[in-house]
Amino acid sequence: MNQKTDEDKFELKSRKAQHVKIVVDENVGVDKVTNGFELFDIIPRSVPDINYSDINMNAEFLGRTFDHPIMVAGMTGGYPEAKQINEKLAGICSRLNIPMGLGSQRAMIVNPDTKNTFDVKASVPDVFLVGNLGLVQFCMDFDLGEYDQAVEGVDADAMAIHVNAFQELCQPEGDVNFKGAWDEFARISKHSKIPVIGKEVGAGIPYEDVIRMEKLGVSAVDIGGAGGTSWAKIELLRHSDDRPYELDDPTLRVGIPTAFATYEATAKSDVPIVSTGGMYSGLTAAKALAMGSSMVGIARPVLTTLINHGVEAAEQWLLGYSESIKRLMFLMGVDSISQLRKEKSRLVPTGRAREWLSHRKII
Ligand SMILES: Cc1cc2nc3c(=O)[nH]c(=O)nc-3n(C[C@H](O)[C@H](O)[C@H](O)COP(=O)(O)O)c2cc1C
């Protein structure tokens, strides 16, 4: 790996701190783009024929059984305050028995002093931890040694490899040389001793790329669709000048809405799918699971609730979210997540969703 300068280290630390500050303080939802779930109507059962209190929220994912079909998507690490945020998130995820994602561990490779801001298992050993690195880094200066360092440094149970071309494009110091990225992905996947998750951060992964990831051996794909937190917007807000786009540029709306990406990925591939990107209500989650997703990922609402209202509030928010999925399950007459995941035919794609799915030859 190239020697990193002190300036690089400082830049990374302050970038991760800026991300959290912007996410908490600014409107970072993507303008005029929705996650698309409102275009799918649920057909409820008139007679559910189940007992609400028998509904089981357990979800199988990566060979483990979790208590809820939800995970906290990777967010932070790499600067002093991130240690507390990650430890609090780890505590919540361990108590709820759901997976927790870390933010990009690049900071910890570049600056080993920041390892303790990611290493939540030191205080919460039983949390199911998903590590995180960016694929583009492997096209630049990372190799499998850095991959192992990230995994072993936090004792990760799975590793998310994020693909974030649109984010990098809008980032002041973005890396836009993705040449050779598929080969790097194959190398990582072959080498990894723990499950690898291919992950977008808000532009969505089309089913062709989901299939390609599946073929190269990933254990799950987080389709990270459009309609939630806009990374293009966050990065543009970090530019003081020389923005590649203005905040109202229509290009910012490019991306596959989470619902469309989920529907087509679950139709065309057998790899477990995580639906992340604007999944802010139990209703959207129930629809994603009915499409066949294995898990729903949530980032921004968990972080903002944690920072603005504390641990208890964030934990209650997640519990309320799961309860809300359960209410939808009751109306659909299913009492397990595995059953809910077979209910795709009870979702009616309307309008633009129907056009998208028909154009993509999914329906
Ligand atoms: C403050 C913050 C930092 C994030 N940092 C990362 C990261 O380092 N790596 C990554 O793969 N995704 C990162 N994400 C993206 C999330 O995992 C998620 O894909 C995205 O925010 C969409 O989910 P949401 O609409 O629930 O926020 C971050 C999200 C937030 C809110």
Describe the protein in words.
The protein is α/β, with parallel strands linked by helices and 363 residues long. It has a single domain, classed as Alpha-Beta Barrel (TIM Barrel). 44% of the residues lie in helices and 12% in strands. It has an eight-stranded parallel beta sheet. Strand 8, helix 8 and strand 9 form a beta-alpha-beta unit. Helix 2 packs parallel to helix 13 and helix 12 crosses helix 13. The protein starts with 5 loop residues before the first helix and ends with a helix. The model has no long low-confidence stretch (mean pLDDT 94). Flavin mononucleotide binds next to helix 1, strand 7 and helix 12. The site of flavin mononucleotide has 26 residues, from helix 1, strand 7 and helix 12.
In short:
The protein is 44% helix and 12% strand. It is an alpha/beta fold.
The strand line-up of the biggest sheet is 4-11-10-9-8-7-6-5
Predict the CATH topology.
TIM Barrel
**Number of DSSP helical runs:** 15
Q: Which range best describes the helical content: under 10%, 10-25%, 25-40%, 40-55%, 55-70% or over 70%?
A: 40-55%
Task: Jot down its keywords.
TIM Barrel, two-stranded antiparallel ribbon, alpha/beta, binds flavin mononucleotide, 363 residues, eight-stranded parallel beta sheet
Secondary structure layout:
Layout: H1 6-25, E1 40-42, E2 59-61, E3 64-66, E4 70-72, H2 80-96, E5 100-101, H3 106-110, E6 129-134, H4 135-140, H5 144-154, E7 158-162, H6 165-170, H7 181-191, E8 196-199, H8 207-215, E9 220-222, H9 231-238, H10 258-268, E10 273-276, H11 282-291, E11 295-298, H12 300-309, H13 311-332, H14 337-340, E12 347-349, H15 351-359
Parallel strand pairs: 4-11, 5-6, 6-7, 7-8, 8-9, 9-10, 10-11
Antiparallel strand pairs: 1-12, 2-3
Helix pairs in contact: 1-9, 2-13, 8-10, 11-13, 12-13
The structure holds flavin mononucleotide (FMN).
